[in-house]
Amino acid sequence: MIPDLPPLPALTRAEAELIDRYLDVVDLVGRINPARPGDTYRGLRAAQALVGKATALRDALALMHQRGESEVHAPTLAQALRVLDGERRAARVTLPPDSGS
Fold this sequence. Notes:
The chain contains four helices and no strands. It has one domain. 7% of the residues are buried. It is globular, with a radius of gyration of 16 Å. By secondary structure, the protein is an all-alpha fold. Helix 1 (13-32) runs antiparallel to helix 2.
């Protein structure tokens, strides 16, 4: 049985778009991470897709700015990232623990 997830905090449409595009970029950078196992073709495909996703992330931030949302509400957005499994997804971007060898 899948546990009930906490609800997403209330977000503006632009904030929700920012979170979604940010996680898209994080997922791709995690696939490119040379410290993680995988093949070069997978990394190449992720790097190619990163250009479009980074553009979408920029556009989400530009939209927030144009709408007068000049402040990032970090605690609220961090909560949304946690609900959307952002901690696990972002961990793929960092170096894995040292194996001790």
